[in-house]
Design brief:
Elements lengths: L5 H4 L8 H32 L5 H6 L5 H21 L3 H22 L3 H21 L6 H5 L4
Helix pairs in contact: 2-4, 4-5, 5-6
Subcellular location: Cell membrane
Pfam families: DoxX
Protein name: Putative oxidoreductase
Length: 150
């Protein structure tokens, strides 16, 4: 699929770059998906080691019972990150990660009263996972290799 149509290609300041943009967009998208997935795995690693370690935090946000939500948070971050990284069930895993990140926007921005300064990273991450929730894993994913997508 071409990134830009012929009519929009003529609007490029440097039209000679059109082939670069067209050929590189999918690999760059794959790099973003893998980076986001790996970082989510890294963030969830401590939680998966101690899945009940965030019981108090999730309950302070109104998620009761914490013994249910804390392991669910750990699973979403750790295993969801693995799924996103390899591109398997990319859309639902990204959607779940986006929900987690929107909760952290609320946590940092409202509960901890940090405003935008505290929530901006979570907003950015939520936007990245929103993109993959709609886009999926592209041709460089396990979903594509299986010939199935969610």
């Amino acid at each position: 699929m071409a990134l830009q149509s012929t009519s929009s290609r003529s609007r490029l300041i440097v039209p000679a770059l059109a082939p670069v943009y067209t050929s590189a967009h999918e690999i760059v998208e794959t790099i973003l998906r893998i980076a986001a997935g790996v970082l989510l795995v890294t963030h969830g690693f401590g939680k998966i080691i101690n899945p009940f370690g965030t019981v108090g935090m999730v309950e302070s946000l109104g998620f009761y019972p914490g013994v249910f939500w804390s392991p669910l948070l750990a699973i979403t971050e750790f295993f969801g990150g693995i799924l996103i990284t390899i591109g398997l069930f990319t859309r639902p895993a990204s959607f779940a990660a986006m929900i987690v990140l929107l909760v952290t926007v609320y946590f940092h921005g409202i509960v901890q009263d940090q405003g935008l300064a505290g929530a901006e990273k979570s907003i950015l991450w939520a936007a990245i996972f929103l993109f993959f929730a709609f886009r999926g894993g592209n041709s460089h994913s396990v979903d594509a290799r299986l010939g199935r997508t969610f």
